Amino acid sequence: xxxxxxxxxxxxxxxxxxxxxxxxxxxxxxxxxxxxxxxxxxxxxxxxxxxxxxxxxxxxxxxxxxxxxxxxxxxxxxxxxxxxxxxxxxxxx
Length: 93
Known about the structure:
Elements: E1 2-9, E2 12-21, E3 28-30, E4 42-52, E5 56-66, H1 68-81
Antiparallel strand pairs: 1-2, 2-3, 4-5
């Protein structure tokens, strides 16, 4: 779940992203400081919508945020029970 805070700017205030917490256990799963050299979080997103001739349209996003522990202990076992096999890819750069 994304949490927001209100930040004052000259002559206005804005809602900005503060932290992201796991929707299952509430643990903080993404640091607002994106300069970290390590990252480990999960976002599951469904985006749907339509576009009418490039002029008008509508879209909606349904999103679930998970910490790695809940991904491994809750989602992976459930998906495997549904008959889906997970694959894992690793990258070095």
